[in-house]
Design a protein that fits this description.
Shape: elongated
Distance between the termini: 57 Å
Strand order of the largest sheet: 1-2
Bound molecules: zinc ion
Largest sheet: 2 strands, antiparallel
Number of strands: 2
Number of domains: 1
Helix content: 25-40%
């Protein structure tokens, strides 16, 4: 009887040198990266690859070079940068910034 956890795993069969069919477990593809705030799908980041496979890629193939690339989508990034500019210009207090944006506004300020 196979292990209970093995029963739901995806399987493939490989023929060994001795001619026997050996069962191997194949892992599924990884999902697409999503924006940390609105969960919109991020562009320019690899999907369907494991962490080790991503590490083997060139740096430029891992993520775009924009601010918060691979973390926030373009709309949320624009929102965070605009809020940071308002705080910088003292048009808005940091405490008045939307709570979920505060972390990113702080990073923009550096
Ligand atoms: Zn977003």
């Amino acid at each position: 009887m196979p292990k209970r956890s093995d029963r739901s795993k995806k399987k493939k069969f490989r023929r060994t040198a001795s001619g026997k069919a050996k069962r191997i477990f194949v892992k599924g593809k990884t999902g697409k990266h999503k924006c940390a705030l609105c969960e919109r799908i991020l562009h320019g980041v690899p999907h369907g690859k494991t962490g080790a496979e991503v590490r083997k890629l060139a740096k430029t193939k891992r993520r775009p070079t924009a601010l918060f690339a691979g973390v926030l989508c373009n709309k949320c990034r624009a929102k965070a940068v605009a809020e940071a500019a308002k705080v910088e210009a003292k048009a808005k207090k940091f405490e008045e910034v939307e709570l979920r944006l505060q972390k990113y506004v702080k990073q923009v300020k550096g």
